[in-house]
Amino acid sequence: MSLSGYTLPVFACAAAVAALHWLRHGQPLSVTSVDLIEPDVIAEIPIEQVAGLSENSALAITRSDPGDNLDLTRNTPIWALVQWFEGEGENVIIKGGEGIGKQLNGEGKAAIYGYAQRLLTENLQRLLTPGEKITVTIILPSGRSLALRTSNSAFGVVEGLSLLGTTGISQPLSTPDQLTAFRGELQDKASRFENLVFCIGENGLDLARKLGINSEQLVKTANWIGPMLVEADLLGVKEILLFGYHGKLMKLAGGIFHTHHHLADGRREILAAHCAMLGLQSSDIQTVFHSPTAEAALKHLRSLDHSTASHWVNQVYGSLAETIDIRCQEYIHSHSDRGMNTTVCGSVLFDRDRQIIVKSKTGGMLIEKLC
């Protein structure tokens, strides 16, 4: 049985609580209690080190433990620097230090999102007396190097990791137990809706909500797209909109239905093949094939369109989207006992700036129904 750990915001909060405790009592804590809020659970988090830096500041360190999860932040140190301050404004001010990413579309704002902000603020406010104010600076010493191994830059977060998520429980997105949990959510929503939206991760879920899609019709799949499509078909779901980042969803066009990079990639081969089928020049196909990321390949196609008044992005991504739909139908049919009456699939792909690149013909029809 797999064991869940906690997300990065929980450890950041635990370190901040320990540092505040030092400021008030001059004593280190070996364990702190953190109210996760989502879910309604109290977590006991070990504290590795605490030090007072001055009368007005203290530093505490924890280490990430994501549980039974393929998570590159495992055992990474998380620091929290807490300082008293006087002045106007909120009584808890949260800042991003070294290793916390910056949002390119947020004018360099620290990538500390809603749940992390709420978790830190609510837990720390309870420990302050009226009139007391603190600044909390979260530091991830390894964040800058770890970020190079993530897709953060694809979503406009640079120079570090983001404190992202909607819960304190770390979800092991690549373990069979997590697939069981996703299937449970799917079964619940399939009993209430005939049309559902599959999102691989938080970015898709967030963008779908902003477009006006009912949150109750959103289903998180993580990398288990294939099994989730088959499950939806068995449950009698009529229509599925696949809504995701192009660097993930394009794998489906190559018949890759478990999208974790540890198992399979194929993005550059898939993208280059579609470019070749559509007649792109050999030198440009070479550039696409050797691009370090899907985003870089998209950027090259966009630059071609700009310089030559061509339409390579629409052609290539249109071909990808239609192929995704076809491959999904084939996958469901090959794994289903329902004959030809299978779930209809459509796809919508977006880029690093969360701008929609393309909708397949069916994807465009479905998104009009859902929004």
Automatic annotation (TrEMBL):
It catalyses: Co-precorrin-5B + S-adenosyl-L-methionine = Co-precorrin-6A + S-adenosyl-L-homocysteine. Pathway: Cofactor biosynthesis; adenosylcobalamin biosynthesis; cob(II)yrinate a,c-diamide from sirohydrochlorin (anaerobic route): step 6/10. Pfam families: CbiD. GO terms for biological process: anaerobic cobalamin biosynthetic process; methylation. SUPFAM superfamilies: CbiD-like (SSF111342). Its EC number is 2.1.1.195. The keyword Methyltransferase applies. Keywords: Cobalamin biosynthesis, Methyltransferase, S-adenosyl-L-methionine, Transferase. Coiled coil: none annotated. One of its GO terms (molecular function) is cobalt-precorrin-5B C1-methyltransferase activity. Belongs to the CbiD family. This is Cobalt-precorrin-5B C(1)-methyltransferase. It comes from Trichormus variabilis SAG 1403-4b.
